[in-house]
Design goal:
single chain; about 230 residues; alpha/beta
Length: about 230
């Protein structure tokens, strides 16, 4: 059985990203979970040297949980292209360089793809929940689609303007926050975590609060990592 977080629990988000803190805090608030960031506690960011998304999410969550002596949540996510053997993948942020220039990162993806007709691509998000005793629960979310060129749209962040989800015509960069957040890799991962580890919403009022806080979160996520 997955280990659960009970209402009233305090959770550390293993991130120094204020936009991600706002998004995750809003998602967890209806479940009675209070979130603080690793940055607020002065916790360092560990080196992400695992070979996959799940491993990086777990090592970040475990480092924060043990340092703070509290449950901790971390995510690791990225953009993967089939014709590039899944790259940039876990190195998605690194392709943008120290300035986080995702225009350059998207141009690199296109340069390496060249005239390859296979434009299959996907986003992956791994969410890891860890406790100070070393127990972890990990959840994956994936959304498939195509890498397009040139990029379209100025909404979202990261590689959003060059990704069209399967069955859609707009890129993530052209969608409104509400349209995108209705079904993303992160939303799918969080849905799995919620079902396994969080107390269910107990009333219609709780569900209304959940909808409201999700709306607030989607308006402020432009600083988040992919």
């Amino acid at each position: 059985m997955p280990r659960r977080l009970e209402r009233g629990a305090r959770l550390v988000l293993a991130s120094h990203n204020p936009g991600k803190l706002a998004e995750i805090a809003a998602l967890l608030a209806p479940h009675g979970i209070t979130v603080t960031s690793a940055a607020a506690l002065g916790l360092p960011e560990p080196e992400e040297d695992a070979p996959d998304f799940s491993g990086n999410a777990r090592l970040k969550a475990l480092a924060a949980a043990r340092a703070a002596n509290l449950p901790a949540l971390a995510d690791d996510s990225g953009f993967c292209v089939a014709a590039l053997a899944g790259r940039p993948g876990i190195h998605s942020a690194r392709w943008a360089g120290p300035r986080r220039d995702f225009s350059a990162a998207m141009a690199r993806v296109q340069s390496e793809l060249g005239e390859n007709p296979d434009r299959s691509a996907w986003f992956i998000c791994a969410l890891a929940l860890a406790w100070p005793d070393g127990h972890t629960e990990t959840f994956l979310g994936r959304i498939d689609g195509s890498a397009i060129w040139p990029p379209r749209g100025t909404n979202g962040f990261g590689y959003d303007p060059m990704f069209v989800p399967s069955g859609k015509t707009l890129t993530f960069g052209e969608m409104t926050a509400a349209e995108k957040e209705a079904d993303t890799h992160r939303a799918r991962a969080f849905a799995a975590l919620r079902a396994a580890c969080l107390a269910p919403l107990s009333s219609a009022a709780d569900r209304e609060t959940n909808n409201a806080t999700r709306g607030n979160a989607t308006r402020g996520n432009a600083t988040n990592r992919q």
